[in-house]
Amino acid sequence: MKEESTPMIPVATHSFNQKYLYAFAGQAEIVNHIRTQALEEEAKRLPDILAAWEKQRRRVADLMNVEIGVPEQIRIQEIPKECNSRISNIGNDELFKKTFGNYPISFRMVEIDKLVAAQRTVNLDYVDRLKKNYPNKPHLEQLIEICISPNRSMDPIQHLEVAPNTHVFSSPNSDIRFLGAFVKHLTKEDMEYAVHGGLPAAAVITFVGYGGAPINVLQAGSRVVLNNGFHRVFALRSLGIESIPVVIQHVTNVQLEFPPQVAGLPKEYLLGVPRPVLMKDFFEPEFSITLKVRERIKMVTVGIGVNQHEIPS
Q: How much is the mean pLDDT over the chain?
């Protein structure tokens, strides 16, 4: 009798191409990143990757000594006056004002290369998608729409109610997020959703969506940290664009106002290290490697828990 073999079922077969700025990472971080994020075939390259990383350590150390103060030399300029009307419309947009209500802001042209970059990775496939939608040589009006318009095309969000009062939302865009829950005054239209009967008196509305579309930075003193729009910035720089319009959020009290982390890196590194990672480092060929990493989607689960008790009045 012929012995049947156990079928081999492939696992984690979907991947995308990722640029990983490994030269500025620690060895433990590199090992963990490849072990948890990359396909198994990449793990076989780990000894060679670590050997190459070791060769870059001296170069990175020298760079950090030679380029002390470079982040503070970033070029910041006024946006030309002929764009004032469009900039004013953006600033008066209700969605924009709600997104940028925590700091004083300004619109400026900033130099890409000297932006402090908190991210370590670039989704190269996503960058290719962006570049296909951009002009090869975008002019200023086009850059304004790409960089700071409050509205842009986003990936569809999928929804499924997986259990009573439990909703799952997912998207291939990792910018999907929970945007808060608020008490809403009831309207006649709301009564259509009161499927369980009773006499509704209040409603709680929950928002799930994407973060604000404009590319924005956090400026503390003379240092400017890229806060949102990393892939668009990378895509535009790879097209040869050196300066872009952004929303600058001005941080006056670093201890109280600057976020504890941006993209996983602590503010002590972003603001305290004399020469942190800059956007220009992603364009040094030997500082990065290209990996095939596991494709993923981001999921947001919203659950409503209810406790009902009788208590003394």
A: 91
